[in-house]
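Bumping with the actual sequence this time:
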Amino acid sequence: MLKNALCSMLTSMARDGRIMVMEEISFDKPGTKKASGIIRNLKLKGNILFLIDRPDENFIKSLRNLNYVRFQDPMSLNVYDVACSEYLVTFRESLKLLEKRLEPSTPECGESAE
């Protein structure tokens, strides 16, 4: 049931154009000013959730000072995180993991694979 709710919310966000899939972003050194500039150029307003499967230390440090940005692993994404976000930004590898997790044949947490 939770998987269906998550799929429904993500579908709604995608329909509304609130999911962005990006190539990897890397920072040579941490820089909140550079990170906020990227978000501004993407024209994202409100709470932003980044799905990241392999955290880049400089990327995290660059964005963590922005109180409207949160991070989540695609394998741990839940309905609450999506509901609290205006935009979801993901990278190709993270999207592949999320798609695998949400496949109909994949059991939800606590369910058997029967």
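The tokens above came from a reply further down the thread. The chain has a mean pLDDT of 86.
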